[in-house]
Amino acid sequence: MTTRVLFVCLGNICRSPSAEGVFRSIAAQSAPELDLVIDSAGTSDWHVGAPPYGPMQQAARGRGYELAPLRARQFLRNDFDRFDLIIGMDRENVANIERLRPTGSNTPVKIFTDYAPDSGMDHVPDPYYTRDFDQTLDLVEAASRGLLTSLNR
Ligand code: 4NP
């Protein structure tokens, strides 16, 4: 059975493309038996068509994740039908996602840090503002492992 997972942030150039790249890499390595479709999107249209933010790409590349081929797109109402699980990075993302939920859709929407309870964080801070790209990757790696565990059960 295929599981379709969509990661969502504001711009789709820092946190959610990192989540897409890191989760894809960790899943391929530690759970190759899972049949996954993995994508990311932004609630805004500010960076549509753009590659991930340069400093974010550099930090990810330093840990062996290549984000360069990814391109930003905007989250759409029909993503509720195209994915089995939608994961926002913070509460604002989740509120903006929920605003587009079609009547009758039961697709779960989570916050990524739900899968990293040991982090003590309730959201993934935006590194576009914090400039802490390593914090982003630490949280995204921990939550990716937690998400894999939850999908493997
Ligand atoms: P992201 O970060 O939501 O993690 O992609 C942002 C990137 C750009 C902007 C905001 C957040 N921006 O204002 O352009």
UniProtKB/TrEMBL annotation:
InterPro entries (alphabetical): LMW_PTPase, Ptyr_pPase, Ptyr_pPase_sf, Tyr_phospatase_low_mol_wt
EC number: 3.1.3.48
Keyword Oxidoreductase among UniProt keywords: no
Occurrences of domain Phosphotyrosine protein phosphatase I (ranges): 3-150
Pfam families given in the database record: LMWPc (PF01451)
EC class (word): hydrolase
Entry superkingdom: Bacteria
Gene3D superfamilies reported for this sequence: 3.40.50.2300
UniProt entry tagged with the keyword Hydrolase: yes
Listed CDD domains: LMWPTP (cd16343)
UniProt keywords, alphabetically: Hydrolase, Protein phosphatase
SMART domains assigned to the protein according to its UniProt record, in alphabetical order: LMWPc
Membership in a protein family: Belongs to the low molecular weight phosphotyrosine protein phosphatase family.
Name of the protein this chain belongs to: protein-tyrosine-phosphatase
Species name: Aliiroseovarius salicola
Native organism taxonomy: Bacteria, Pseudomonadati, Pseudomonadota, Alphaproteobacteria, Rhodobacterales
